[in-house]
Specification:
20% strand, alpha+beta, elongated, five-stranded antiparallel sheet
Length: 148
């Protein structure tokens, strides 16, 4: 009976502690509210949204790798066809190939930059008043401070 009582007490304590923990968005809102505590502006957080920030978006990274691979195929096709063209046509294709190669090197530089998590962004905060304005704030990784 005593073991059941201790187990129930520990379980109750865990439930109480876990229910009291704030979400990331609630912590971000609390930081913004503390920053604007002495302000006369009323902020509405109802439609606010918390998003993660990356040095480069994972989607942009994937798109640059995909586009780079497509450029490799196109450049290989151009180089194989350039031998069968006249000098004027070959020069034109050479110019196109040079531009594509320059773009490919740019995409290779982008691909070297791996997506890295750098923090959070709370957006769509409405400033209530005569002129309805929207604000957004950036936060560090742990949502402990507002980053400018």
């Amino acid at each position: 009976m005593r073991k059941i009582y201790h187990a129930f007490a520990i379980l109750s304590l865990v439930v109480i502690i876990s229910c009291g923990k704030k979400t990331d968005q609630e912590r971000a809102i609390a930081l913004v509210k503390s920053k604007y505590a002495n302000s006369n502006q009323d902020l509405n957080f109802d439609g606010s949204k918390l998003d993660s920030l990356y040095n480069i978006s994972p989607r942009a990274y994937a798109d640059s790798v995909k586009k780079g691979n497509e450029l490799d195929v196109t450049l290989a096709e151009l180089e194989s066809q350039i031998e069968h063209l006249s000098q004027a046509e070959s020069d034109s294709v050479g110019l196109i190939s040079a531009k594509l190669t320059k773009e490919r090197y740019h995409l290779l530089d982008v691909a070297k930059t791996k997506p890295a998590f750098i923090g959070w962004k709370l957006s769509k905060i409405v400033v209530e008043g005569e002129k309805a304005d929207t604000l957004s704030f950036n936060f560090d990784k742990g949502i402990t401070k507002v980053v400018e």
